[in-house]
Amino acid sequence: MAKVKTIFFCKNCGADSPKWVGKCPSCGEWNTFSEEVVSKSSSSASKVFGGRDTKPASSQHIREIVVSEERRIQLADQELSRVLGGGLVPGSLTLLGGEPGIGKSTLMLQLALGNKGLKTLYVSGEESQQQIKMRADRLGLSDTDCFVLTETSMQNILKNLKEIQPDFVVVDSVQTLHTVQVESSPGSIVQIRECTGELLRFAKQTGVPVFLIGHITKDGALAGPKVLEHMVDAVLQFEGDRNHVFRLLRSLKNRFGSTNELGIYAMQGSGLQGVDNPSEILISNKDDSLSGIAIAASIDGARPMLIEVQALVSTSAYGMPQRTATGFDLRRMNMLLAVLEKRCGFKLGAKDVFLNLAGGLRVDDPAIDLALVCAVLSSNVDIPVDTKTCFAAEVGLSGEIRPVSRIDQRIGEADKLGYERIFVSQYNKGLNNAQYGIKLVQVKRIDEVFRALFAG
Ligand code: TYD
Ligand code: MG
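^ thats the input. predicted complex w/ thymidine-5'-diphosphate below
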């Protein structure tokens, strides 16, 4: 019997070592090494599909390399198509990550079923064929050319791929796959790495695009070693608040397009629907004036959208003021409250402040600072902000209103949605009031904004 060979792998970065070590020499994490059984043999992908030419390739001058016309597969799902950079690239391997229950399987099943004229294979190691069929019925999509395979063995998957010859493949999920090439258990680093490697070789050799679903760990990183992210062509992340309907599809890495694109979906009873105009849905209240609400003209990736910021300021009952923020960085909120306290003289130190972004979104855009500050002030003085007003500016530590990027797009979006007035920084250069239908209010300091809003 052959001797069993074991190697230690770092769970964080995938580095290997013949002995156990406490601190990973490659990524510096502590206590991440675990022992796994390995055995070496040639890849089954190259066995099934024939290896590449073994002749050494000769180099070519870059001028002489001929690029064949890029042929992207157009998808019915416009949001996904855009996030991928304008369609699906043949031979690409895409990893889709996201928390459990966020809708990864739904998105991918919709993709596999929703494209008439494309033959697809949906491989699932997580659900039974009946479960998948039930979900397909629920989505109202079951008359397309889609094959379902419930299998976790890499060799059987590759055999099926050879028989069916689909136009693209979805594999749910990478953590359930296993290959006979290595002896460790499914979900282990070696297995994940090896199976992804085989799918990668399959994709590159046949030109069939592959989607791979991956689980996400508690702290939001893709489970499995970082090497996975290096191996694939694109990494997409599906995120959102499970209790809300909105889901965002971001691209964290894309070899074939920009990572600025953002896809927005709404999770409905009959699956995920693309949202064309997020601003219209994110603003819940357009008519009544309520205090504590301000609208921010934000940009996520390349998409401008107006977001409703809600704040509640109330006197603290227990002497220990509470601060909570949903969808916004709490530390940044505390900083903005300190600016209000110190630079503008608002006594917020003994007040509870609760902040919420409508729709369960998470936004990192600094341009929502001013809307946040105005929502807090509005709630504090209990005077509503005019519903036809919105904001796009960052607030600095000394209470100055700072310019933000892509101001034209933000103003354009607010204008399109019928807002009458937008507060921007005076330091945004080259803005011309006559150019827009919406009135620009250019401000320098936070107290100017306060006077303009509440003292009139
Ligand atoms: P799922 O795709 O199974 O999530 P993941 O694969 O990321 O773990 O989606 C799970 C949730 O989606 C489930 O809690 C119910 C919801 N859902 C709908 O609201 N509508 C639908 O049509 C479907 C199919 C799912
Ligand atoms: Mg799933």
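The pocket of thymidine-5'-diphosphate (ligand 1) is lined by residues 98, 100-106, 135, 138-139, 267, 269-271 (CB under 6 Å).
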